[in-house]
Amino acid sequence: MREKLGNSARAAEALGQSAALFLLDLDDFDDVNDTYGPAEGDACLQRVASRLIATVGAVGFLARMGEDEFALLLQGHTRRSLSHVLKGIQEALALPFSFDGHTLHLTSSIGIAVRCNGRRFNPDELIRDAALALDEAKASGKSCHRVFRLLRPVAPLQPGGSFGLGSPFT
């Protein structure tokens, strides 16, 4: 993932484009493994990955970062396209997951870091900022997102959210 981020950083800078990293963590996924076992948990994660791939298609690069954490890298985005991707992810995960007569309803917390207008950025800093936004989203409750913007806070990607002035999170 770091190599892909590095390549994306160089390309975005050269093309004067923006880059965004979404870190997605499935809320309370340990309960799935504890209740149904690790084999069913892995099968569920494969279905999550399939839905995410179907949602983002060729728009971004998707990677599994941990047990129940995924990363999505987007290059050349607009605020509208980021909002569209976020909505697509939320809608894809809102659909129930069924297996062996069981139905699961999953939610996720999402941290998003953005670098705009072809500015030079360090991939490790982008990962750090997305992780900070993810931590903020988790602390705010389930099924929510936070955006970390370098230098200034911005309006949330979805209507109805709020942020404190001076905070790097939205």
Give a verbal description of the structure.
This protein is α+β, with helices and mostly antiparallel strands. It has one domain: Reverse transcriptase/Diguanylate cyclase domain (Alpha-Beta Plaits), CATH 3.30.70.270. Helix content is 44%, strand content 24%. It has five helices and seven strands, in the order H-E-H-H-E-E-H-E-E-E-H-E. It has helices at 2-15, 30-36, 38-56, 79-94, 123-140; strands spanning 19-26, 60-66, 69-75, 97-99, 102-104, 108-115, 145-149. The strands form two sheets. It has a five-stranded mixed sheet. The chain has a two-stranded antiparallel sheet with strand order 4-5. Helix 3 (38-56) runs antiparallel to helix 4 (79-94).
Total discrete domains: 1
Count of helix runs: 5
Structural class: alpha+beta
Q: Hey, roughly how much beta strand do the residues contain? A: 15-25%
CATH class bucket: Alpha Beta
Write out the CATH superfamily name: Reverse transcriptase/Diguanylate cyclase domain
